[in-house]
Amino acid sequence: MSAKIGPRRPGTISITDLGLTFRSAQVLRGIDLEVSSGSIVAVLGPNGSGKTTLLRVLAGVLAPRWGSVLVCDRPPGLGLAAYVPAGERMLNWRLTGRQNLEFYAHLAGVRRELRGGAIAEASGLADASALLVKRVGECSTGERRRLMLATALVRSPPVILLDEPFADLDETGRSAVEAVARRWADGGGLVLHAAPDHGKGPSPDRVVWLRQGRAEERS
Amino acid sequence: MTNGGRGVPRRQVAWAFLRRDLRVALSYRFPFFLQVLAIAFTVVTFAFVAELVPPGEVPGGYFTFAITGIIVASFLTAATTTLGGSLQEEQSRGTLEAVIASGVPVAGLAIGFAAFPIVNAAVSSVAYVLVAALIGWDAVASANWSLAGVALLLGTISFAGVGFVGAALVLVFRRAGAVTGWLVALALFLGGELFPLSLLPGWLQAISWLSPFTLTLSLIRDALLEQRAWGESWGALAGVSVAAIAYVTLGLVALAAGLRHAKRVGTLGGY
Questions:
Q1: Rounded to whole angstroms, what are the CA distances from B124 to A64, A119, B224?
Q2: Which of B28, B93, B100 sits opposite A77 (nearest CB)?
């Protein structure tokens, strides 16, 4: 049986009046955003504008103080959005690329007979096939970023959240991210990425600017 | 192809964690070797200590009495301090956020974190018994092994409940391992890991029965060292069962609250 990874259902995001505070600091305020399936959305803004916080809310690892957030019409944190954080902290460095992918595929309920194929396809799309046998601790930063992307893809999520998607990647890596994002959007999924500026992530269909926790849409 | 972590059976989540944690443990070969060595030294030490205790002082002889206590204690430690430590390690590696984002529910997460430490304790127990047998320990042939096994299983569920509370404390206070470690030390002391409970003052003995460790170890020693039959043990078994249900429920509620708190203040990936 061969695996075919891709968004397993249409990916949508619906945010209404989202607000979030850390202690007394208001990080996000009154954000409204509706994104339908088949889109690539770039969330841009200077450092500290709330981009990563917004992605973490959508991933379900951070709870909003007020407002409503829905991913595929469900609350976040139900496995419908795969989150690739900035940096390298997502994988177990003692394990190989394949062992890391197997763990997340297993958690996502990828059936045993499909797991091998899904891992091969996800790593191929992320240009990380050669890294499957390598221990993550022995990989370079860019190689780890590719494996992190593959880890997200292997679960076939409807929504992919990428924080600083081009950081630490060479041209081949950036092309792989660009191709994956387009393939996901064409397949009915949704890719939302955060970057400080234009050109630091896959070409978007929509751009949302965050400034001091407020969102404004620009073409 | 997938349904996200939310609909995945808990045993599959447990297996995913178990396999991953086993692979990580095996990748550190030296500590693994040291663990086996430590077990051998412990058993030999207590074989010598047992020579100092006259026969008949404790049921089954001191060596068997102590080894039983040490084995049950290893399950308590695994399900409490090791579990909290695993969660803290998961936070510092940054994998906790990724696991939570996969949609694994609280119960699945709890079982997943507890799986490897408990299996590791079970393997260690076999190693204790094998080393003891190698130096001439004659395992009690007429012991009620099935009753002891059921008691250990129920006791481990209680211990895991305490471990989930410890994990919740780690989520709320970060470095809360010392609290769990202190509670374990207290439970081992009050539960009579290495000495009979009758040596404690009466009021301490009364308090000690609140601990799942005391209830479990007492029932296991009754089954192994005094060949207690099932019919004579229903009361004690009911006590251990009630403790298992109460502690695991409390632990899951605490862990869910700890996760909610960490999501609210944004410390899930912090350490």
A1: 44, 34, 18
A2: B100
Give the phi and the psi of residue A166 in degrees, each rounded to 5: -95, -5
The count of CB pairs under 8 A between chains A and B is: 128
CA distance B241 to B152: 11
Please list, residue by residue across B201-227, b when 16 or more beta carbons sit within 10 angstroms of its beta carbon and e when fewer do.
eeeeeeebeebbbbbbbbbbbbbbbeb
Q: Over 90: is that where the pLDDT of B8 sits? A: no
Tokens of B200: 């404690």
- A91-115 confidence digits (pLDDT tens): 999 999 999 999 999 999 898 899 9
Average per-residue pLDDT for chain B: 89
Backbone phi, then psi, for A30, in 5-degree steps? Answer: 50, 45
Whole-angstrom distance, CA of residue B66 vs CA of residue B60 = 10
Prediction ipTM score: 0.88
The distance of B32 to chain A (nearest Cα, Å) reads 15
Which H, E and C letters describe B173-223, residue by residue? HCCCHHHHHHHHHHHHHHHCCCCCHHHCCHHHHHHHCCCHHHHHHHHHHHH
Contact predicate A157/A82, CB 8 Å: yes
Q: Name the CA radius of gyration of chain A, rounded.
A: 17
A106 and chain B in contact, CB less than 8 A: yes
Q: How do residues A135-174 score in pLDDT, each as one tens digit?
A: 999 999 999 999 999 999 999 999 999 999 999 999 999 9
Residues 19-58 of B with CB under 8 A from A: 19-20, 23-24, 27-28
Residue B5's pLDDT is: 47
Give which of A107, A119, A155 to mutate to test B binding, by max B Cβ within 10 Å. Answer: A107
Q: Which residues of B touch A118 (CB under 8 A)?
A: 1
